[in-house]
């Protein structure tokens, strides 16, 4: 059983009218998902930066419609997850789907838009993508500024509403600003800098702060976040997991594959069905306790939302 904290299926379904059930263009479609050991999948609303500012929010709403109409409603065994109780009460034959946001540029400077997204079911909020927005600079903005005053208000709402603040993609300074203010912190899809030096990965100082903060970290399957040179296989992903564990992160660790958000793949992890062999390989390297925590239990334990 696996919980995966990040994919970009909604973007692909928004860009093109393809079948969620069976399209081969998707790394996660309903059939592949059912064949895989993934119990709960998070679906990110990611509105590309090319979309004009004045329709960013509208496109986010379109993706939420797609989430409910193409992923939740057609399948009796796929349940919409709103809170921790929903996660804990999934039946053996059921799967869970969680709505998340990647990038607060969709809300502009409007806290009502944030509150609306939370009401519609968003349960983790990535403050930025790579660009700067009204909340903070992203990791691709060379200015490197952290949280704005508006960003602080955003986090106050996320704390109040028991929603995860996601620091994957935020600027280096922004990371430390979030750690000071957010009650519930996650890095939904980030690997280890020490093993693969990439701006999207976490250095030891960041890893230690996430552990101290009782946050959550998702190891990701992006090949160029995993290893500098080809070929990249799932054994290299396991190296990142073992490094995190060595650093003391075994209670904070899980997965955020980034399926359907990447164009190149890790050998053995070309789509969601790859989790089967990957988890078998991982099981051999961890204690049973560690394996259970990392594959799903940490995510459930840390899931912040207990209210409706
Ligand atoms: Zn991303």
Q: Could you say what the CATH architecture is?
A: Alpha-Beta Barrel
Q: What is the CATH H-level superfamily?
A: Metal-dependent hydrolases
The helix/strand series, from N terminus to C terminus, equals: EHHEHEHEHEHEHEHEHHEHH
CATH class: Alpha Beta
- Alpha carbon gyration radius: 18 Å
Q: Could you list the spans in which at least 5 consecutive residues all have pLDDT below 50?
A: none
Query: Ions, cofactors, ligands: which are bound?
Result: zinc ion
Q: Strand-residue fraction?
A: 5-15%
The CATH topology name reads TIM Barrel
Helix-and-strand structural type: alpha/beta
Number of domains: 1
Mean pLDDT: 98
What count of helical segments does DSSP give? 12
Share of helical residues: 25-40%
- Quantity of strands, as a count: 9
Distance between the termini: 25 Å
Question: Helices and strands in order, then pairings?
Answer:
Layout: E1 2-4, H1 9-15, H2 30-35, E2 38-45, H3 56-72, E3 78-80, H4 84-88, E4 95-102, H5 111-119, E5 122-126, H6 149-161, E6 164-166, H7 172-181, E7 185-187, H8 204-212, E8 216-219, H9 223-226, H10 234-246, E9 253-255, H11 275-283, H12 288-302
Parallel strand pairs: 1-2, 2-4, 3-4, 4-5, 5-6, 6-7, 7-8, 8-9
Bound molecules: zinc ion.
